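Exercise: predict the fold of this chain.
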Amino acid sequence: MKIKYRYAFSWSANKASALEQLGIVVNPSSSMDGTDCIAVAHSIEGSPGWAEASSLIRQWGGSTRITTDFSDAEISAADYCELQVTHANGYPQPEDDFGFLTQTYDTSNYCDECGAWAVQNAPFRVRKSLKWGRNAFLKLFWVEDAIFMHREVWQAHLAPLSIETWPVEDAKGNVLDHIVQLRADTSVALQMEEGLGTRCPKCGRVRYMGPERGFLPAPVGNPDLPIFRSEQFFGAGHQSSNAILIRRDVVAVIQSAKLRGAKLWPCAAPE
């Protein structure tokens, strides 16, 4: 695996030059003219110049985003992986005043401070003009844990593995025949320590930051389910979601079919 760092900072030619001398590519580079712009640079943990670059970014008050790239072998070897959809387009309907919440969810336990504990009880409504590109998976803005697919792609690859779906409707409530939402109704706890989470000041429940480095904790009890959701919530601000996890055989199908629009984040081996 590779731990990757994405730096963002207020650009100046001197700052860009300092990173370039460490062997790090900066956009815009020190040869460019720029004022009041944000520069972006990347590095890999343990590579030459990484430690020095990270120190400089902290000194400059810049931000650092960390993520992990896993090899195909590491993904294939995991019993479970989180299915993280990377292609987003469109908004759940109705979007005015977040009206989709009461349209799509049971909000009796919902917390508007952390955005957790709503339970889906109706199909999502979307505009017909969603843009898919060449992607097999799609998510909506504002909703991380609702995973959509073209119906024919789901039928060809995931339906044989007993992955069921919700229907999807247009803004008027008519069922769309070309799109489905994957169902992940069962919640399973992950092997996570409550002390690593943050307690919501309003509802008092704990949630976690999404995975950044290394494997996701394994689910408890080795569930024999093709798809399920984490019992824990992840997020920041007013938005939270569950992790959607899939079994090894589902991972293998997604890899072999080269289905686009999602990242596979492997779980650690059970303790």
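Check your answer against the key: Residues 133 and 200 are 38 Å apart (CA to CA).
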